[in-house]
Amino acid sequence: MTELQQLTIEQAAARLAAKEISAVELTRAVLERIHATEPSLSSFITVTDDIALAQAAAADQRRAGGESGPLLGIPVGIKDIILTQGIRTTAGSKILGNFIAPYDATVTRKLLDAGAVCVGKLNCDEFAMGSSTENSAYQVTRNPWDRERVPGGSSGGSASAVAGQQCLGTLGTDTGGSIRQPAACCGIVGIKPTYGRVSRYGVIAYASSLDQVGPMARTVTGCAHMLGVIAGHDPRDSTSVNRSVPTYAAGLDGSVRGLRIGIPREYFVEGMDPQVEEAVRAAVRVFEQLGAQVTQVSLPHTEYAIPAYYLIATAEASSNLARYDGIKYGLREAESAGLLAMYQRTRAAGFGTEVKRRIMLGTYALSAGYYDAYYVKAQKVRTLIRRDFEQVFFAQDVIMTPTAPTTAFRIGEKTADPLQMYLSDIFTISINLAGVPGLSLPCGFDVAGLPIGLQIVGRPFEEERVFQAAYAYEQATEWHKRAVPDL
Amino acid sequence: MTSYEPVIGLEVHAELLTESKVFCGCSAKFGAPPNQNTCPVCLAMPGSLPVLNRRAVEFALRAGLAVRCEIALQSRWARKNYFYPDLPKGYQISQYELPICVGGVIDIETDAGPKAVRLTRIHMEEDTGKNIHDAHGDASLVDFNRCGVPLLEIVSEPEIRSAAEAGAYLRKLRAILQYLEICDGNMEEGSFRCDANVSIRKRGATEFGTKVEIKNMNSFRNVERAIEYELSRQAQVLDEGGRLVQETRLWDPDREVTRPMRSKEFAHDYRYFPEPDLLTLAVTDDWIAAVRQVLPELPDARRQRFVTQYGLPAYDAEVLTMRKDVADYYEEAVRRYRNPKALSNWVMGDVLRIIKERKLDAALVIHDWPVAPERLAALVELIDAGEISGKIAKSVFEEMVNTGKTPVDIVAEQGLTQISDDTAIITAIDQVLAANPSKVSEYRAGKDKLFGFFVGQVMKETQGKANPQKLNELLKGKLSA
Amino acid sequence: MALSRDEVRHIGLLARLELSAAEEAAFTEQLGHILEHFEKLGALDVAGVEPTSHVVDMTAAYRDDVVTNPPAPEVLRSNAPARDENFFKVPKIIE
After folding, report:
1. In a domain, A470, yes or no
2. pLDDT tens, B34-73?
3. A189 lies in a domain?
4. Percentage of chain A surpassing pLDDT 90?
5. Range of A453's domain?
6. Of these residues, A22, A42, A79, A192, which one is catalytic?
């Protein structure tokens, strides 16, 4: 007998539609599970029990009034970098420790309008900067598959909450892999949509030209439902694209016959875990068996992606984080010591080490005398990386790679050397630089029982095709049915 | 100072008269209670994003076309990064490498004749908030109402050669922006601000001297005085063998000196980079053509036309066209009654006097004229018809201003109609001459100045209503008889 | 390429981050190490390549010039660390 919190989004939606369960019952089960498992996982910065139950009751009312929809009454969690009106929103940082969001992000509003139930705000690396969620100023989130290990980052809480069955779906954000890599670490599905597909209004900015919001869930169908709700043009976001939103979950029929898959040689490198390589290659063979056509391709500028990303992202971040100055909101320190001291000490006290490091790096990359050599150069490399993808996409429909070079590492294992942490983003980062959509779903487990992720990358705005490929693989395998150990 | 050549460039920031701010839907109107015209975007809340106001771009196009700039079909937004309490994002959205307008020219009149001052560029940016000093003295207060109001930054080439030229340039630029109805040009309220870059070099030299930026000049006169002061300060430093420091100085209007800014110990590194939240600003040829189509007649063209069409002296044309609303008023009056010179005198004199007294010229467009143009025209028409004298007309004018009545009504009600009837005037003259026999003798004996006395007496006799020309004619006749 | 401690201090000032001596030392080393790794960008020939500032192939989105925001509600000031009625209060600014 499946417990309610173990349901996938689509299973829960079906039961709700059939009036077998109510949203309130479902939400109660989820909240119970959250409180029972939080001591083990620490996924949530804020749990919003009362709000959630009220929203659930409202969802039941709406259903009684004849409404329906894939997310009506579905309990979801939201990464704490996305604003939720009236609810504390911290970005995982002390500098926003007391910040109550005065407005909803567009994606929050869309979820709520669709009747989703917000059960809480999820832990993340501070200002989305990190690959393990260890940079959160609040707590360390643990990987439900092995609690001595990281859930990935920066959307670690969003991933562990789904994997740990603490809610049915979550929203994360992805700037250099922060949805896909934690999805891989935690054995779930996560998608970073095409840049501009989903509104960034109300999403605390890390790197404006790279950030995107995306859903995380236990199945491809669940993600597809969620993306269908949050995607779309937003007049409040000048970078959001005016393009109709397909019903992503419709037309998932498992057919990949004739799909042309490119496997880039640069993504099978020394230093990656051989079990990861093996699982991904095995997954590719499954696609071949299903009738897809696989070709080895090249993305020749891959090795330049990390420096390009870390220069562009940190430059934008150094500017985006300048607003945290102790004047309009957030932490303030040392105000009796004068204005300059107030700025410097507020920001020193409010930001963690990794955030400071990236602000410093970004400030340097933009500073007089270095702008051309670093920032502009990185932007040109970005052009070359985009072109690499365009080239491959002439003859290939999708690109497939491992999501990460290793499975989830131990808590504390990579914190000594920041560069080591940066290098683990190698497979996800180019996708953000190119602005194309990328999805991760489980394609196996290593001998320690840790999940391995397969990344599927598509052409701009071809999320449907990406979902289709992912669905076909999912349905042909059983990885998504494996549950985490007891917590 | 005469051995040095002044090299002056001016940077003007003009606030645009849009209804809403440049990147959000808050009101851009001046004067609201503190922090009322704010929202998550202009308060730089986490997660907020800018969206561009189309009308602000339209206004920029008007300005660029009016001063003959080249319009960039594609221009870019940039972030200018620095920390200051009135800058909530910690950066200002501006334009850097690719501004919307490049080049351009402003024509001015100098003592040596007309001069074309070239512009470097015009770009768009957002205004900052306002810092106010707290009564307690240990804190400052910040009001973000102004934050996000659209600005045009208009940069001249360093071709201005004197404080007077600077004043002429600013007056001309302001008039143009007012004619375009995109800026109200109010320096005191801060909707038209000027910074000056001042340096000097030996006459004949081609290299530039050390440049000093002067800020905090809040009127045209202050700009001129500040520049004059700075030019002589710099000359003095060099004459004494010293070196000038490249710095920013503030004009102190009370002590009438420029002094270095205390807070500029840290040189700014603005770290400009392309604004990722806003896409390329693309302007089409069609849009440009549409804006060009509806450009109003600009100040210089109108001034010229007033000279040729109405036969006005250059001075009159200049005064009447300094403001578009005054020029419009004048032309409406002339349309009603064709005496351009007389109407020019009345407008330049009495009408503008009252406008200034009542500070009605603070508005971009004057609406509450003390006297409607058609009524002014009617007044002049009465004078020309000989109905009233010029002198009486002055008091009729005052009455019109105070009561709002028409000149015809006032003249009728007060019985001010000029006496032009010869008989009546002769009667009055006869009475005056009869009453002053000795003076008549003195006059006939050669004391010509007494003529004025007789004129005065006849006027008194006729309650000022005697037609002056008739009076003169008839009086002369009687006295020489 | 090594970063000097002075440069790190200067960047800290530009970024308004007060750094302890230990942080200065650590950042000097770490940032230097990271930048060294990024040197490989120097080798890449990018002649004639345009920089990408946006990955969206569109030009500017516009709003109409209409006031759509009501007078700011209290909630927009309620997070302020220091206030004087409706003003935001900061330590005195010296010109």
Report:
1. yes
2. 999 999 999 999 999 999 999 999 999 999 999 999 999 9
3. yes
4. 93
5. 4-258+438-481
6. A79
A 79-138 → B contacts, CB under 8 A = 82-83, 89, 91, 96, 99, 102-103, 105
Query: Domain B422-480, CATH 1.10.10.410 — does that match?
Result: yes
For the cut 60, the answer to whether the pLDDT of residue B326 exceeds it is yes
Whether the CB-CB separation of A296 and A265 falls below 8 Å is answered with: yes
Q: Where are the domains of chain B?
A: 4-290, 297-414, 422-480
Instruction: Please tell me which chains touch C, using 3 or more CB pairs under 8 Å as the contact test.
Output: A, B
* Number of residues assigned to chain C: 95
Q: Measuring CA to CA, how many Å separate A365 from each of A35, A301, A360, A379, B68?
A: 44, 21, 9, 12, 38
- The closest CB to that of A100, out of C15, C23, C79, belongs to C79
- The verdict on residue A327 lying in a domain is no
Question: With the C-alpha atoms ordered A369, A375, A377, A379, is the resulting torsion angle positive or negative?
Answer: negative
CA distance A172 to A122: 9
Q: ipTM more than 0.90?
A: yes
Give Cβ neighbours of residue B391 (< 8 Å, ≥ 6 apart).
B464, B468
Q: Residue A399: which pLDDT band, with cuts at 50, 70 and 90? A: very high
User: Distance between CA A161 and CA A120 in Å, rounded?
Assistant: 10
| Domain ranges, ordered by start, for chain C | 1-43
- Residue in A42, A43, A132, A178 annotated catalytic: A178
Other CB atoms within a 10 A radius of the CB of residue A20 amount to 10
Q: Return the partners of chain B (3 or more C-beta pairs < 8 Å).
A: A, C
Domain count for chain A, please give it.
1
Nearest residue to B279 via CA among A241, A245, A365, A199: A241
Separation of alpha carbons B444 and B438, rounded Å: 10
Could you list the beta-strand ranges (E) of A245-291: 260-264
Residue of A nearest to B38 (CA): A328
Q: Are A350 and A331 in contact (CB under 8 A)?
A: yes
Mutation pick from C67, C83, C85, C86 vs chain B, by most beta carbons of B within 10 Å, is C67
Residue A210 located in a structural domain: yes
Q: Which of A103, A241, A319, A364 to mutate to test the interface with B (most CBs of B within 10 A)?
A: A319
**Which of A8, A72, A83, A3 has the alpha carbon at shortest distance from A36?**
A3
E strands along A14-168, which residues? 44-47, 75-79, 117-122
Neighbours of A470 (CB within 10 A): 26
Beta bridge partners of A439: A191, A456
Q: What is the pTM of this model?
A: 0.92
State yes or no: is A79 an active-site residue: yes
- Domain with A21 in it: what CATH number? 3.90.1300.10
Distance from C-alpha of A237 to C-alpha of C56, rounded to nearest angstrom: 12
Name the DSSP class of C75: G
Picking from B44, B47, B278, the nearest residue to A328 by CB comes out as B44
- Identity (one letter) of the amino acid at A397? D
Identify whether A414 is a catalytic site residue: no
CATH (residue range C1-43): 1.10.20.60
